[in-house]
Structure formats: C-alpha cells, structure tokens
Automatic annotation (TrEMBL):
Residues 77-218 form the XdhC Rossmann domain. InterPro entries: MoCofactor_Util/Proc, XdhC_Rossmann_dom. Pfam families: XdhC_C. It comes from the Bacteria. It comes from Neoaquamicrobium sediminum. Signal peptide: none annotated. This is XdhC family protein.
Length: 236
C-alpha cells in the first residue's frame, strides 16, 4: 500500500473518523474516501452503504473490480444519568455491540453496584467530556431531568456532531430546554436534531421498555446516517 494512503488511513482511525480504503484489484492502486467526501455514481452509492453498515466488500464499477475496506470507529453510547433507564440500557447496548459509558455526578446513583461492568464516571459531565470528547460516532442520551447536569453534554453533543442526541422529558420540559439551549448559543438547526421525547414511540412505560425504545432509535439513527445527504445528491 502507498505509505501516504496508509498514513492518511491511520490518522483518520486515530481521530475516530470513518474512512473507506478503496483498492483497485486490477492495478493495486488505492485511495481513501472519507464520509464527508462527495463521490458520484456507483462507487458513491457503494461507499455510502459501507459507511452505514460498516461492511467491506468487492464491487464492480465501470468495468473495474474495487474492494471497499470500511474502517468505522466502534460506536459508543454516553448516557448522562445513572437512573433506572440507564441500568436497563447499558447491558442491552453492550449486547448490541456498543461501548457504553455512564456519567452522573450524584454519587448515590453512580455506584459500581448499580452498574457492574460498565465504565462509570461519578463526576460532572464537563469534567469527563473534557478528557474524553464526544465525536460523530457517539450517541448521547441525557436522562437526568436536571438541567444542571443535562444541558452541558447536550450542547457538547450538538457541537461535536454526535450521530444521535436524545433527551428524556415531556414536550413541555423540552420546550423549556430549547429556550435554555438557544440562550446558550445553540442554533435551531442543531436543536432540531435532538430526539425528544427520547426513544421510538412504542408506547413504552417502564424503565426497561424506555431503554428498548432508546436503543432502537440509536441503532436506527446509526444505520441511516447520511441517507438525507445521499437523497439530496440524487435529486441534484
């Protein structure tokens, strides 16, 4: 492999950015395609699909055989709030292949006994996220109902371009949240990305059912990333 291509790929992986190594199996040449790149035709559709699914495959494009080697960062879920929903969500999310972290400064809630085998931070979100920034392959779920705890990570998630941002609360609660976030510099376009009330509408009532709805919505959002951009490009 061309050393320049390899260095570029390694840099993208270190930064937790998705990249696809496209290799022409005929002549051995290769190139890197980033998720933000605009690629037309059959190769464009194939790379968009690979970014959504993470699957590597060989394809035929314009008489050439290309191998798409997808390098996607491991998706993670950061849950703000060590509550009953989080207790159900954490083990389910791990089974689904997500790295999971729980953040809650309330030490009575954020205990290893309540969250065994989960990366747990009994600290304020701003301290944790200062060390471990959010990114495009992170889902942020804010479930404390406490603006002093939830608002900062929500703003951070919107600024970082997290693939999923969800917040617990009624529509009335969310309306007040919108006012606060706008006053703190968020744009309306950013706020429109927040899933609130959080989770798919499956008429969930118990904490475990809400956790199912949240995880399903996170998976749905992860696997449909970029579809809006692709649809817009197809109509141009």
């Amino acid at each position: 492999m061309d050393p320049t291509v390899l260095n570029t790929l390694n840099a993208e992986r270190r930064a937790r950015r998705a990249a696809i190594l496209v290799t022409d199996l005929g002549d051995g040449s290769s190139r890197i395609v980033r998720e933000s790149d605009t690629v037309a035709g059959g190769l464009g559709e194939a790379t968009r699909q690979a970014f959504r699914t993470g699957r590597s495959q060989a394809i035929e494009v314009d008489g050439r055989t290309l191998f798409l080697n997808a390098h996607l960062p491991p998706p993670r879920i950061v849950v703000v709030g060590a509550v009953h929903i989080s207790q159900a969500l954490a083990p389910m999310a791990r089974l689904a292949g997500f790295d999971v972290e729980i953040i809650d400064p309330r030490t009575a809630f954020a205990t290893p006994e309540r969250f065994p085998e989960v990366e747990l931070h009994a600290e304020w979100p701003q301290d944790v996220l200062g060390r471990k920034p959010l990114d495009a392959f992170t889902a942020l779920a804010a479930v404390t109902h406490d603006p002093k705890i939830d608002d900062f990570p929500l703003l951070s998630a919107l600024e970082a371009g997290c693939f999923y941002v969800g917040a617990l609360g009624s529509r009335k609660t969310h309306a007040k949240r919108i006012e606060r976030l706008l006053s703190q510099g968020a744009t309306q376009a950013q706020i429109d990305r927040i899933h609130a009330p959080i989770g798919l509408d499956i008429a969930a009532s118990s904490p475990a059912e809400i956790a199912v709805a949240v995880l399903a919505q996170i998976v749905q959002t992860l696997r449909t990333r970029g579809t809006e951009r692709a649809e817009a490009a197809a109509t141009e």
